[in-house]
Amino acid sequence: MEQTYYLTTPIYYVNAAPHMGTAYTTTAADILARWHRMDGRDVNFLTGLDEHGQKVAESAEEHGMTPQEWVDTIAPTFQETWKGLDISNDDFIRTTEERHVKGVQAFLQRLYDKGYLYKARYEGWYCVHEETYYTESEVVELDGVKVCPECKRPLRYDNEGEENWFFKLSEFGDKLLAYYEEHPDFICPETRRNEVVAFVKRGLKDLSISRTTFDWGIPLPFDEGHVTYVWFDALINYITAIGYGSDDPEKQAMFEHYWPADVHFVGKDIIRFHCTIWPAMLMAAGLPLPKKVFAHGFLLTKGEKMSKSKGNAVGPADLVRIFGVDAYRYYFLSDVQFGNDGSISMERMVQVYNADLANTWGNLCSRVLNMCGKYFDGQVPAFPDSQADAPNPLRDLAEGLYAEYSAAMDVIDYSGAADAVGKVCTLANHYVEDSAPWNLAKSEETADELAAVIYNALEAIRIMAMFYAPFMPNTSAEVFRRLSLGDIAGIDDVEAAARWGQLPAGNAVVKGDALFPRLKIEEISLEGF
Ligand code: ME8
Question: pTM (2 decimals)?
Answer without folding.
Answer: 0.95
